[in-house]
User: Which sequence fits this backbone?
């Protein structure tokens, strides 16, 4: 169980802080919930404590792993599957995994594809989601400021294109 103030990651929304643990009654049944405030944007959500593992809530990576993640962004190979349906399915599977390194692969592939060919509306949404997940965790891990992280990513893609 996480404590108030814990830094966690929601696999679909990114890094957050546990603001409180509260009891909410729904249809006559009381359950404990984590109230999460996300690092980027002004979003909060409640996650049932008993389902948090199944959802994929986990502790944020440490600063050293965050540095490795930034380096992985620079070094990861770009895959450019022409089959949109397969690419979309693979990207969603990687994001749902909650593994920052897999989400980085999605982010880098979509940033590259956006610069080369442009993205469909749904891929643009996935790109935004992947960017939020990665950047929010790196910021919360205190590896660098948001603008610096985004500049590194943009410069990396710019050097490839």
Assistant:
């Amino acid at each position: 169980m996480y404590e108030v103030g814990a830094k966690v990651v929601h696999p679909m929304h990114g890094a957050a802080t546990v603001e409180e643990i509260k009891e909410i009654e729904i249809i006559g049944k009381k359950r404990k919930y984590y109230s999460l405030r996300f690092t980027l944007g002004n979003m909060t959500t409640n996650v049932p404590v008993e389902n948090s593992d199944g959802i994929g809530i986990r502790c944020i990576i440490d600063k050293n792993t965050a540095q490795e993640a930034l380096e992985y962004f620079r070094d990861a190979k770009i895959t450019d599957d022409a089959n949109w349906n397969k690419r979309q399915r693979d990207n969603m599977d990687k994001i749902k995994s909650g593994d920052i390194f897999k989400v980085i692969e999605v982010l880098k592939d979509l940033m590259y594809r956006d610069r080369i060919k442009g993205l469909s509306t749904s891929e643009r949404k996935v790109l935004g989601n992947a960017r939020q997940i990665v950047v929010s965790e790196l910021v919360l891990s205190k590896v660098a400021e948001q603008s610096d992280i985004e500049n590194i990513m943009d410069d990396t893609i710019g050097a490839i294109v």
About this structure: Helices lie at 52-55, 63-75, 84-97, 100-116, 121-140, 146-160.
